[in-house]
Queue: 3 jobs
Job 1
Amino acid sequence: MDVARAPLKKLDLIYCQNVLIYFARDRRKQLLSALADLLKPGGMLVLGAGEVIGFTHPSLTRIGNRQTLAFRRSG
Ligand SMILES: C[S@@+](CC[C@H](N)C(=O)[O-])C[C@H]1O[C@@H](n2cnc3c(N)ncnc32)[C@H](O)[C@@H]1O
């Protein structure tokens, strides 16, 4: 649950699917922000479609189509 303390280097690609459902809405957004911070510039975060609604992050741009919930990190 403490993603910021996970011993991970910066990542090109993060899949996080069928996990967010276990967390409260506010906690989901905290987790996603922490995952976004783990991405390299240009890296992608792929979530399960419909797993989070209304998530935005200043460094993430949504990509793909309506059936896909994925983001690319800009910087
Ligand atoms: C339904 S499985 C999904 C597994 C995989 N992501 C997939 O889509 O096939 C849910 C996963 O969430 C993990 N999980 C549940 N609560 C968690 C928590 N508090 N911290 C980390 N992982 C958790 C479980 O260990 C399990 O692997």
Note: The chain has one helix and four strands.
Job 2
Amino acid sequence: MRVSYVCRYCNHMVGELNRPDWTLHDAEWRLGLASLSPVERSEWISYNEGSETLTVQTVCDWCQRAVETHPELLVEGNPLQ
Ligand SMILES: [Zn+2]
């Protein structure tokens, strides 16, 4: 399966893993996702069975800096587009 890390603000792909031998269960354990609550899981990760891709939302360096510099941007929702 594939694992894609995508920035939740700008949709930039931060990183990608390709592990043909991993199951979804393996990926969740190895990536530390098994400890997420059901709400966090539904918010941060999604799995596409057709393409066997697990998408994990994260925050890229650029957006991290932008948010740290301008925390008020978060109030607006999705202002970085
Ligand atoms: Zn970003």
Note: The beta strands are 2-7, 13-18, 45-48, 53-58.
Job 3
Amino acid sequence: MRLLETDIRIDAAPQTVWSILDDIDRYPEWNETVPQIEGRTTVDGTLRILLVQPETPDLPLEPTILRIVGARELRWISYTPDPTLLSGEHIFILEPTDDGGCHLRHNEIFRGSLVDTMWPGISINGKAAYERMNRALKARAEAARDVPVAIHPSVDRGVVPHRPAVDGSTLRCLCPTDRVEVRIAAAVSHNHLCGCSKCWKPAGSLFAQTAVVPKDALEIAARADKLQVVDAAQAIRRHACTGCGAHLFGRVDDPDHHFYGVDFVHPELADQPPPAPRFAAFVSSIVETGTPASHMQSVRTRLRTLGLEPYDVFSPELMDVIAYHKVKMARSTERTGAA
Ligand SMILES: [Zn+2]
Ligand SMILES: [Zn+2]
């Protein structure tokens, strides 16, 4: 057995590096050592790769994935047709460092009767190829860590100063004429950004801006005929203008739902400036709608710079409210059952 060892220090979060390593469709964009790769990176899955090393014929391989620990470890193994001759267990290990970066260990364990004969070539050319891949991975990860991101027009120019919520405002859709109008006779609360795939987002923004108002305070004031529910299967029924597509409000019809009684609105449609957004919800969801996972470190850093703590559901405050709502509903079911 022989162990080929390489390593590199990367100034990007392990998840940023991982998301590049795991996104094999984009290897041709940066990886000269493995410029061709097909398959699926799931444990027991098979890949078809082309390994390119200096001074060595290009080597097609069909490794099997042995181990995946998200953001920490990827391991695959390939054999020559006669597995007793040569096998290579290729190992990527990402170790988080205290400063938010990581240390990549990129190794390969070679076994079989041919290893000693081949070792002089592997130890020079294999090592050079892996070190080239490490440098390219580092460059790509460190660039992904700092990509500019458009969060939402309400915050893209910087931190929004604190301002008190105004009682009463009118929301208007974006049609040039015949606008849908919704009046709100209350202040908006819990103003936040939302990355979910259902909330209405301005063009080019990664996030929606969303707040809530008591439903008894909301009234459709003009062109109710232009409103249509976007997706009736959702618990929050979002009412959108059929002319411009803007969502005017989202309402929960189920009296048992934790958000029954409040309507969701997009404060940028209001004629009054809303209080500053306070957090970002469903941040990881933007990956599902197309943001590269490798850009998430940039997104989260930018949100924190804007004073918007990134959460992957709602804020802890709202999650505690939702959790207790479940307890409340269970108690009420028990009482009804016992009666
Ligand atoms: Zn409209
Ligand atoms: Zn949302």
Note: The pocket of zinc ion (ligand 2) is lined by residues 194, 196, 198-199, 208, 210, 282 (CB under 6 Å).
